[in-house]
Amino acid sequence: MQTSVGTERRGFVEALASGQWSMTELCERYGISRPTGYKWAARFVAEREAGLSDRSRAPGHCPHRLSAGVAALILAARKKYGWGATKLLGVLQAQHPEMAWPARSTCNALLARHQLLRRQRRRPRWTHPGAAGLTTDHPNQVWPADFKGQFRTGDGQYCYPLTVTDHFSRAVLVCRGLRSIRTAATKAVFLTLFRAVGLPDAIRTDNGAPFASTGLHGLTPLNVWWMQHGIVHQRIRRGTPQQNGTHERMHRDLKRETARPAAATMRSQQRRFDVFVRRYNEERPHEALGNRTPTTLWTPSSRPYVEHPPGPDYPAQAEVRLVATDGRFRWRGDHVFVSHALAGQYIALEEVDDEVWTLVFYRTLLGKLDARTGQITGG
Length: 379
What we know:
single chain; alpha+beta; 6-stranded mixed β-sheet; 13 strands
């Protein structure tokens, strides 16, 4: 369930008003700078809800002339791959290095004359004060993951494509058509992937099921399992799919090349996905990679999957509590609800202020508990 940016900011200012969080802690937690945090707080005080709204922005485009043989090769490659001018020229230059190839604009003009150029409106480049930047310098640092929008195959059955990529190399690690987005089926795909290629440092997703919930820290059985294996779950800010931009662009290509129209059955649809993955990883040049292919950069992870990982190693001074099946833990003769997703897990509490305790699961700060009221904030 998506939440508006205004609601996200409201959570920020309300957590600040609770007095349990410093401005520095909240800015770090929400992925924003301190000046931005002070700006939100001041706007909320001055304008209430109206002060938590956004703004906007956008760019532009251009076309030229060539030989019959070169034109024929470009048109044939376009029909085979369906790619744009830059990628077509990249793959043709690799296949025929002895030939002189035109500029991108000349290639685009040729495609336009043959009605093969898709005129797409450029999307505006939205900015967001809380947008978490994503840079990687080696494979398996961050794996973006998502469900591409569901569609029906020819036999009327729904297909939910689950995709996982490696941000650094752009390699598509998984493209699996599932019958639903249920946790069990999703976890099975990740388990097969982990066993085959090892573990990433982090997995980056949106805030939808089964990756996240509306409960404390967005906890779900799936991301709790990831945390147990030392994987950081990065959640993009609500309403900002551009924070998973490379993954979203891959999804556009996936939809165009495999689902317009959809295949007759799930099995034949999966064969299309498999062909797409091979082409995307092994043939398609990527501008961000200097026109190299993902397979030239990706390597399996050096972190192997362990079937039974060790439990959390909490500091000696921390209060450790077991979360019961109803999602609650015992605290000073009472019960405090934390999350059903943590049932059977041990969490740690550490006092950071007078009667204010941090809640930690493995290396993840879940929130802060006010021992006087039993309320948890910051989730």
